[in-house]
Amino acid sequence: EVQLVESGGGLVEPGGSLRLSCEASGFTFSYYTMNWVRQTPGGGLEWVSAISTSTYHLYYADSVKGRFTVSRDNAKNSLYLQMDSLGDDDTAVYYCVRGGLKFDFDFWGQGTPVTVSS
Amino acid sequence: QSALTQPPSASGSLGQSVTISCTGTSSDVGAYNYVSWYQQHPGKVPKLLISEVTKRPSGVPDRFSGSKSGNTASLTVSGLQAEDEADYYCSTYAGRDTYVVFGGGTKLTVL
Question: Do A105 and B46 touch (CB under 8 A)?
Fold first, then answer.
């Protein structure tokens, strides 16, 4: 059974940093592009970042480019998101999501909430 | 990276059909056959319903179907059931610079 378990969310002040982690199991992690997708309090989904199997290709939404850094450790079946210079607009539930071959998202973790507030 | 445009709400009666639109541009929806649709019930995580415009993953009922014409993709739910009441989101690949964009979501109400 595919499982994606996020951790690392929480309350952080504006300008602060957080590092999210996602531990994967039930599939060959190194074979898949992995993504972070967030859902704002208003309910909308926003794709945040993607990392290719070999980490050679990294992709970011314009809204987080230069502030967020995605990484993975295939030996540990883990995905990470380093988030710096956090602002109010970054408040959301962050999902770790497995990417399909056709730019679809076929398995989602339960999400970890991030709240940016003073 | 502009979000794709979806109607905020849609509704239909039990047993009827409803279609939800997802409008993009010639740079995203119109350029690639990589439109996906997701269903999200309250308090649950999104579930993949349709990929590559028309393909249903295993386990998704054939009441759900997808299509695309030009810059607009559509999700049709036929034979509406009470459990279809949920939020629906579209997404598409939009090229290497943008990667993926989502629609704003549509709340489907089954009357």
Answer: yes
